[in-house]
Amino acid sequence: MNKDTGTKFSLHAQDGLARRGQVTTAHGVIDTPAFMPVGTVGSVKGLLPEQVAASGAQILLGNTYHLMLRPGAERVGRLGGLHRFMNWPGPILTDSGGFQVMSLSALRKMTEEGVTFRSHLDGSKHLLTPELSMEIQHHLDADITMAFDECTPFPATYPEAESSMERSMRWASRSKQAFQPRPGYGLFGIVQGSVHEDLRRRSVEALIDIGFDGYAVGGLAVGEGQETMLQVLDFTLPLLPAEHPRYLMGVGTPEDIVKAVQRGIDMFDCVIPTRAGRTARGYTPRGTLNLRNARHQEDSRPLDEACSCPACIGHSRAYIHHLFRAEEMLGPILLTLHNLHYYQSLMSGLRQAIEEGALDHFVQAFREQQALGDI
Ligand SMILES: Nc1nc2c(CCNCC3CCCC3)c3[nH]c(NCCc4ccccc4)nc3cc2c(=O)[nH]1
Ligand SMILES: [Zn+2]
């Protein structure tokens, strides 16, 4: 890989295994550790791009699977790419589609070539291969492209996990071959191997041999539980090159994120803050709230006294409770906005703590707050 193409990663500070850094892409810089809101089909549900930016997010996630089915990647490309299409000027990372095919589509069939499946929208037949996934992510103009992989289901027998990982590594090589290197545009590999240390090691070695701008840890947050996930991180992260970003896919709760940052993860994505916002679940430093619960109907306090988001500055728990009871659109909008602000303030606190060499204190205070529970 010649030096002037790809995304760049700079390390600014470390505290134990935790890292504070920056990823530089064609559409801007990402401060890490970073949380990336999910904008699956070209929108962070219910929010305007400027609202997402105001929450502190610098990078969004899009998705090959959804956008290839509707409106079609070539169409997005003809309309100027995903940044133009959704009016998001900052960096965009797109997942490669394999995970979503296996979790969303019907009648899918996996072969060495790739995955054939029927659209969950209209039943039309589609094929997704490493080469097609790279082409789609190129049309979308993603700053960070994910290699086409298979997320090994959990649980899996050792032979199943081994052959799945080996296929993903062959697909990683085909992804690299098909990816078009450009300055500011990166390709990330995805480590598989389920919960087995030797398979994870072989996967890391294969990816390093191919060479990527960043390394994602895949195949986790698939039902293995937090303890097992953290054990896999404990033996996988030390094998990854320190000079590239590490991205833990699909994670997670605030506690998951804190524990993974302590182990050396730089980037996260999860549907939790946005999905919870739509299901009346609010995140605060002292735990979560179910805003449909009648106990909020006379509570004039904001969701979180320390939060500066529009929901906390202008509204009460009673009002948000009312909006959900009345099925008003503004309910999910305000709560999604707040949850994203909370997640971004957690990331900002983690970045600052690592800079100050005070991560242990930050984690201690985080745990004490969570233990208080919400009054
Ligand atoms: N390529 C690839 N993607 C993975 C993903 C998708 C990450 N978000 C993609 C966005 C792009 C658009 C949509 C999402 C994962 N998500 C999860 N867990 C989510 C668990 C979860 C589910 C629901 C609620 C909360 C947590 N594990 C994942 C593993 C992999 C993986 O190995 N390979
Ligand atoms: Zn708020």
Tally of DSSP β-strands: 16
Helix content, binned percent: 40-55%
Low-confidence stretches: none
Mean pLDDT: 97
Question: What secondary-structure arrangement, pairings included, does this model have?
Answer:
Blueprint: E1 8-15, E2 18-25, E3 28-32, E4 34-36, H1 49-54, E5 60-63, H2 64-69, H3 73-78, H4 81-86, E6 92-95, H5 98-104, E7 106-110, E8 115-118, E9 125-128, H6 130-139, E10 144-146, H7 158-178, E11 186-191, H8 197-210, E12 214-217, H9 226-236, E13 246-248, H10 254-263, E14 267-269, H11 272-278, E15 281-284, E16 287-290, H12 310-314, H13 317-325, H14 330-355, H15 359-372
Parallel strand pairs: 4-14, 5-6, 6-10, 10-11, 11-12, 12-13, 13-14
Antiparallel strand pairs: 1-2, 2-3, 7-8, 8-9, 15-16
Helix pairs in contact: 6-7, 7-8, 9-10, 11-14, 13-14, 14-15
This protein binds ligand 0O1 and zinc ion.
Zinc ion is lined by residues 303-304, 307, 309, 311-312, 338, 341.
Task: Report what the structure shows.
- The protein has 15 helices and 16 strands.
- With 375 residues, the chain is α/β, with parallel strands linked by helices.
- The strands form 4 sheets. It has an 8-stranded parallel beta sheet. Strands 1-2-3 form a 3-stranded antiparallel beta sheet. It has a 3-stranded antiparallel beta sheet with strand order 7-8-9.
- Helix 9 packs parallel to helix 10 (254-263), helix 13 crosses helix 14 and helix 14 packs antiparallel against helix 15 (359-372).
- The longest helix is centred in the last third of the chain and has 26 residues, at 330-355.
- It is globular and about 60 Å long.
- Zinc ion binds next to helix 12 and helix 14.
